[in-house]
């Protein structure tokens, strides 16, 4: 019942709140270990979240973990999505673009904080799942509820970019979409964030 009503009961990344305005927040996140998969969404019949199953299998969320230990890894939130599709602005939506010819999506699970180095995480059995380390990073963040459809996300990204530039922040990368709830959560109770890296 809690998941339907948006209760987030899994580990979420810790961050330091640098600044809070009525429009957005500036947050600093510590280094993290991430499991990610980059794929062509057309492989999954247009479902941009097709990579979710690969990552869920790696951590053992749906049965036996598909990793070298095999070790069940606790699910965390949010699930991060980055896309190489172009958005009608000044830059592409994301930095990871696959082979440069197709639109690709990179989906990420942030692993539990107990993993501090990539080599500490169990090795994925599926070569499409890659374990990477991300260093400390700073983001401008806008939180919103509802279903994060393309139109809504585009609007949030455009507004956040405008606010960050207005306030003198230098944008240093493309946006990420963070979703904290499973798909069956009622839309008004979903927690989503658009995150743009800043200097």
What keywords describe this structure?
single chain, 199 residues, alpha+beta, Multidrug-efflux Transporter 1 Regulator Bmrr, Chain A, nine-stranded antiparallel sheet, 2 helices, 26% strand, globular, Reg_factor_effector_dom_sf
Structural class computed from helices and strand pairing = alpha+beta
Main sheet summary: 9 strands, antiparallel
Shape: globular
Low-confidence runs: 85-101
- The CATH C-level name is Alpha Beta
What Rg do the Cα atoms give?
Answer: 17 Å
Treating each run of at least 4 consecutive H or I residues as one helix, how many helices? Answer: 2
- CATH homologous superfamily heading: Regulatory factor, effector binding domain
Q: How far apart are the first and last residues' alpha carbons, in Å?
A: 40 Å
Query: What proportion of the residues is helical, as a percent range?
Result: 10-25%
Strand content: 25-35%
Protein name: SOUL heme-binding protein
Pfam families: SOUL (PF04832)
Family: Belongs to the HEBP family.
InterPro entries: Reg_factor_effector_dom_sf (IPR011256), SOUL_heme-bd (IPR006917)
